[in-house]
Amino acid sequence: MKLLKVHGSGNDFFILDQSKLEKPLSEAELKLLAQKICDRKSGLHGGSDGVLSVTAGHNDAVVGKMRVINADGSEASMCGNGIRTVARYLSEQNNQNAFKVETMQADLEVKREPDFAPGITVFEAEISPVSFTAKALGMHVAGTEKLVNESIPELSATLKFSAVAVPNPHLIAFVDHATLIGEELGRIASYLNSKGNPIFPDGVNVSFVEVLAKNKIFVRTYERGVGFTNACGTAMSASSLMYVLLFTGKSGLEEKITVLNPGGMVKTKVHQRADGSYWMSLIGNATFVATVEVELSAALAGDFSQVSWQETGEQKAYEHFVRSVVKNEL
Ligand SMILES: N[C@@H](CCC[C@H](N)C(=O)O)C(=O)O
C-alpha cells in the first residue's frame, strides 16, 4: 500500500489514495489504520496528526474527494492544512492547477499559488461553509445560540470565547502572550474533548490567538482527536474571521492576514458574500515529505518493521523557509 507523508505548516498527515487500492478499506480498517500509523510513539516513522483518504469525487465537477481521519480514528468534516496537500496531490495526478475538491459538507475551490520561497509549493483553499449556530457547532452553553466574545464561567473567569464552525467546530479566545504560551489552553481543551463534557459532547478544536500587529496574528491550537498540533488550518481560518469581526470590522474583509503558528506561517483572507455569509481563503505550503510503502496487513497490526520510506528533500527547504522567512515575521 502506497502512502504520501505530507504537511501544511507542520500539521502532518499520511495521504492514502484509495482509488489506487485493489479494494477500498472498510470503515473499520480506515479508522484502525489511522490509529496505528498516526501514533507518535509506535506509529509509522514518527506518526502524524491524521490520515487524508482520497477517492473519486461524486461527479465531474470535482477532481476528487477528501476525508479527514484524526489520529484517534475520529472523522472530521474538514482539514484546512490537509486539503492544500490533497489539492497538490490531485493537481499533479490530473495536471490541473485550479479545480474543486469534494469534502463532507461542500465542494471547495483549490488552486496553485506562487511558491512562498524556493521549494515551498503553495496552494490556496476555500474554507466553507461557516456557521455560528450552536447546532452546527455541537455546542451546549445555557441559553446561548451564538457565542461571540462571551465568557463561559465554567471554563474561565477571565477569558472571552467565540465559537464558529468552518464547518468543523472551533472555540477561540484572544489572549496575551503569557496566556498564549501557558497551561490554560491545554487545561480547557483537554476538558472540552473529554468524554461526557456537557459543553461540547462531540469535542471541539480550541485555539488561543495573540494579535501581533495589524493583520498579523499567532494561533496556537489543541485539536479535537489529536491534541496540540503545529498548526490547524481551519483554526487559523476561523481565528482570522474572528480577528476581522472583533478587531478590524468590515475594512478587514479581503485584506491578506499573516497567520503564524508553531509550525510556520500561512496567509488568509476573509470574504463576505452578498447574502451576508462568510468564507475564507487559506494560502500556505503543501509539502510532500516522503513516499511510503507498507503492507496494509502489517500497518493494521502496527508492524512497521518493513517500510519503504523515500524522502523527497522538500522538508529541508521547508525548515530553511521557517528559519529565514517565518522567524523574521515574529
Ligand atoms: N488540522 C486540521 C483539522 C483536522 C480536524 C480537526 N482535528 C477536527 O476534528 O475538527 C486543519 O488543518 O484544519
Automatic annotation (TrEMBL):
Keywords: Amino-acid biosynthesis, Cytoplasm, Isomerase, Lysine biosynthesis. GO terms for cellular component: cytosol. PROSITE patterns: DAP_EPIMERASE. The record marks 170, 223 as: Could be important to modulate the pK values of the two catalytic cysteine residues. Its EC number is 5.1.1.7. Gene3D superfamilies: Diaminopimelate Epimerase, Chain A, domain 1. It catalyses: (2S,6S)-2,6-diaminopimelate = meso-2,6-diaminopimelate. GO terms for biological process: lysine biosynthetic process via diaminopimelate. Substrate binds at residues 11, 70, 80-81, 168, 205, 223-224, 233-234. It is found in: Cytoplasm. GO terms for molecular function: diaminopimelate epimerase activity. Catalyzes the stereoinversion of LL-2,6-diaminopimelate (L,L-DAP) to meso-diaminopimelate (meso-DAP), a precursor of L-lysine and an essential component of the bacterial peptidoglycan. Belongs to the diaminopimelate epimerase family. HAMAP family: DAP_epimerase (MF_00197). This is Diaminopimelate epimerase. It comes from Liquorilactobacillus satsumensis DSM 16230 = JCM 12392.
